[in-house]
Model the fold of this input.
Amino acid sequence: MIRFEKVSKWYGSYRALTHVDAQVETGQMVVLCGPSGSGKTTLIRTVNRLEPIEQGRITVNGEDVNSPGSSINRLRSNIGFVFQQFNLFPHMTVLQNIIFGPMKIRGMAQKLAIEKAEGLLDRVGLLAKAEVFPEQLSGGQAQRVAIARALAMDPPVLLFDEPTSALDPEMVGEVLSVMKGLTREGMTMMCVTHEMGFAREVADQVWFMDKGQILERAAPSDFFSRPIHLRAQRFLTDLAH
Amino acid sequence: MGYHLDFASVLTGQHLSWLVRGIAVTAELSIASWLLAFGLAVILVLIRMSGLRPAEWFVGLYVEYHQNVPLLVQVLFWYFAVPELLPQKATIWINERDSELIFAIIALGLCFSAYMSEALRSGIRAIPKTQFEAGRVLGLSYLGTMRYIIVPQAVKISAPPLVNYSLLLFKNSSLAMAIGVHELTYQSRLIENDTFRTFEVFTVATVIYLSISFLIMWVGERFERRAPAH
Amino acid sequence: MWDIMRDQGVLLLIGQYPNGPLGGLVATVLLAILGLALSFPCAILLALGRISPYRAFRSISSAIVQTMRGTPLLLVIFWSYFFLPLVIGHAVSGFTTMVGALVIYESSYLAEVLRSGIEALPKGQVEAARSLGLSYWRTNYLIILPQALFNTLPSLLGQFVSIIKETSLGYVISVNEFTFAAAQVNSVLLTKPVQVFSILAITYFLLCSSLTQTARWLEGRIARRRSGQVGRVVKVMPLPEPAP
Done:
């Protein structure tokens, strides 16, 4: 589904990503973890070209993300992205935020879009907040709306950039449970997160990154109990404290 | 169109001397007004911080007036209306000298003193009270604290708007032409009337204004960079 | 003063209309509104140009804005006076000249207000819109500009006050706006400059200060509304005092 081939990215002399080779299979849930500055956020942002790359190839469903021929807007409309800061549109209501994509980009009729949006809101447990403005939502609620907004485009793949890092601890659970529901439905997902308990529970693969490279790739049970790479070991012990 | 550019007639002989005079008067007007404006601004700020209610009210009204009445109207008021209000001795004294220039300086200076005092005021307000307490705790007097701790910081913070107002003051010196001050714009029109070389004259005037404006902006940026506010 | 207002009030208000073109205070307000309305689209283009990802657009927009910032409005008015008829092809009225000059000059200042409003928005807004697949222009039109315009409303109102004050420069090219009308009244009455110019100043004062107060009130309302935003500290735009 998502394939990284020898992906490198640098600014001047700083190498953000070095020769990343990996792939996410359809239906898989991959968690990216690692110390800050490891390049995990950069890597996930290259998938929908929020970050350009200097070398290598990234394909989503066979289509090269960076080829000059491909329409970046069409590509992006098929990749869902959930931000750490939610980035809801403050001048629209919750419902308007969700119907915006299908209506303005897919050309969906309003009635259909509203039906769809209400279905999604119900799914994330926020139907009652449909007419509310984002500024009146709590962090956890806003993030759930952001997930619904991404889902409204029916993307085959969802990307999450530290979706719970900006939330107060008591709201992390409600967002994670929405994400767990999505993995159960077989959605292809990539997620940058520090929530190791969550990763252990639902990830199919954990990729450990440090200094722009993927140092270890393993199933969660293996990674958390017997990390091979020295830096991964240190990372996990640091986390435990 | 058959129009031949002729900068020479504009830039030589008598016309050149007119141009030079215009630049000199603009400079004189701008500098004198700026000094008046800044000096008054400092006084206004001190009055405003004195804590006396009527004084604060007065400064508030002063600022509101000068910010909401067009500068041109202020200039016209000073030139046409104020002489009627002055005692005769004063009017004679002013008329013996360059009355147009004097009133232009007063109008420009007073108007921008209002803006500058507001800039200084925000600058001072932006400094946390703890800075003041720190100064007093060291043993500095009120004035000493103001002088060594508060005002230097306030000036750094107010530098950007102050530079901006200085630039506006300079540009607005052109309004003095409305009452017959021989500043650059007035002289340009004189030359234009004499030579009919409209494009050339105004190009020269524009270039001169732009050069000085960019100079002011550049000086301002240097000043801001050397004294960054945090 | 009241007798002046009684006798000359109509002249001050609407000039010599219907025996001549519309003038006086009404002309001032009309000039200001037209100036604002016509500069707006130009200002939006200039603002977007200033932050464009393409160097060419950035350079051209910046050059235009910096030039206007360094040129006195009076000079722009003279340029407009002498060259607008050449560009259009026939003679234009003083009123049109003023509108032209105001549009050229104010587009740059309005563009700077808009630009800071756009740049104050979190970068995540653009990223969220683009991630959904929205194009550059539609992102600006549907997401960025609506928010920027709302947030800068107080500053825009302040800029409108500046435009009102700037219309007074029409006096210099004999455009029959409020200041010119007052000067005419003064030249007729001759012995009452204090009263005439006081009426002039006080009227501008009432008009402009009420708008400025509205802008300040708006700023407070917007600040309170935006401070309830989730997840980020919002920088409220400081209200720049209108320049003379």
User: Anything to note?
Assistant: Chain B is about 80% helix and 0% strand. The two ends of chain B are 57 Å apart (CA to CA).
